[in-house]
């Protein structure tokens, strides 16, 4: 069951704006032990929510590599999202109107600082394993830099220490699709919904890859001139996201990803900041990932002082970190010594 934490004090953002208050939706599984040393925190990616047991089957649950019978598992919805944490559809307590287009610029660091408030509220002094895939990995790395002694171990998947030019270009194309929707400038919760569908379509091309799309979505009928299987698939995925998310959150969260750079404001290179992360780290790359490709994982591994890199052979592209639970679990179990 999703719970909510309210922080009824001003929350300053990295951009200089101050949110009058903050709420964070979160889910927990298992129980915190008396020593308070069995907490596992999972940071989620772009359009996921706090219910990690639902969106990461095979990784979280009874008998899984991360088991609530042994650990206190927490996943919190990120700031700016559409699943219960403070976001664009919420009412600004000062203006009494929904934020919508007036929602402020947020960064990965803002998300981590918000989660750290929840951590303290839950009485967690030490995180046994800090986990993050894709955008979740951005948060986990930032947290490890901001609070070097918090996590005993890091588990990162398909991620990067700074958003690449490739990623920024993709996100820009997605926001252009949202902005091209004639409804985007309307001050309504539904604004940009058709643009969001197009943005999701662009995203799907980067979450998967040529080989998988051809293998799964090729039509056997050589006489077709329309109504192609691949078109139906992309339309279906776009409609599916539009029903559960909103264009405002997508727009703001892709902007937050673009600003991700662990070296920003730290007077060191990315390599230098990575070298300050002494936490033992398991890093998983996906062989067919074109969004956060293996070369980015190799770059991280080359500069983290205590890192084990494993490449999972998968045809599922970037989504492999969500799909290949069995293969990933084997690597995680091998690395962990509880």
Quick overview of this protein structure:
This protein has 338 residues and is an alpha/beta fold. The protein has helices at 52-55, 108-121, 135-146, 165-180, 193-207, 210-217, 229-244, 247-258, 270-275, 294-303, 320-323, 325-335; strands at residues 3-7, 11-12, 18-19, 22-29, 39-43, 72-76, 129-133, 154-157, 281-286, 307-312.
How would you characterize the overall build of this protein?
- This is Homoserine O-acetyltransferase.
- Transfers an acetyl group from acetyl-CoA to L-homoserine, forming acetyl-L-homoserine.
- Belongs to the AB hydrolase superfamily. MetX family.
- Substrate binds at residues 200, 319.
- The chain is built from 12 helices and 10 strands.
- It is α/β, with parallel strands linked by helices.
- The protein folds into 2 domains: 3-164 and 260-335, 3-Layer(aba) Sandwich (Rossmann fold); 167-257, Rna Polymerase Sigma Factor, Chain: A (Orthogonal Bundle).
- The longest helix has 16 residues, at 165-180.
- The radius of gyration is 20 Å and the shape is globular.
- The model has no long low-confidence stretch (mean pLDDT 97).
């Amino acid at each position: 069951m999703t719970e909510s934490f309210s922080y009824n004090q001003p929350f300053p953002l990295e951009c200089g704006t101050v949110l009058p208050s903050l709420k964070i939706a979160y889910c927990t599984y298992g129980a915190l032990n008396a020593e308070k040393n069995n907490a596992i925190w999972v940071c989620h990616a772009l359009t996921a929510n706090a219910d990690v047991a639902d969106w990461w089957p095979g990784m979280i649950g009874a008998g899984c590599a991360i088991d609530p019978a042994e650990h206190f598992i927490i996943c919190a919805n990120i700031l700016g999202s559409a699943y219960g944490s403070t976001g664009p559809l919420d009412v600004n307590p000062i203006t009494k109107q929904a934020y919508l287009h007036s929602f402020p610029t947020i960064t990965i660091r803002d998300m981590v600082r918000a989660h750290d408030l929840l951590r303290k509220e839950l009485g967690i002094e030490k995180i046994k394993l800090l986990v993050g895939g894709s955008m979740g990995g951005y948060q986990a790395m930032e947290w490890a830099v901001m609070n070097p002694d918090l996590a005993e171990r890091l588990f990162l998947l398909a991620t990067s220490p700074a958003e690449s030019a490739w990623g920024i270009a993709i996100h820009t194309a997605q926001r252009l699709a949202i902005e091209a929707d004639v409804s985007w400038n309307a001050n309504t919760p539904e604004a940009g919904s058709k643009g969001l569908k197009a943005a999701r379509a662009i995203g799907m091309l980067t979450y998967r890859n040529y080989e998988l799309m051809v293998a799964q979505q090729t039509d056997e009928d050589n006489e077709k001139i329309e109504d192609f299987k691949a078109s139906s698939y992309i339309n279906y995925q776009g409609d599916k996201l539009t029903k559960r998310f909103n264009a405002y959150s997508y727009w703001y969260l892709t902007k937050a990803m673009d600003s991700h750079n662990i070296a920003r404001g730290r007077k060191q290179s990315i390599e230098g900041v990575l070298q300050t992360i002494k936490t033992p780290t398991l890093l998983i790359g996906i062989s067919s990932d074109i969004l956060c490709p293996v070369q980015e994982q190799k770059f991280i591994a080359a500069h983290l002082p205590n890192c084990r890199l494993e490449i999972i052979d998968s045809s599922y592209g970037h989504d492999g970190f969500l799909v290949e639970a069995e293969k990933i679990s084997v690597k995680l179990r091998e690395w962990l010594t509880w």
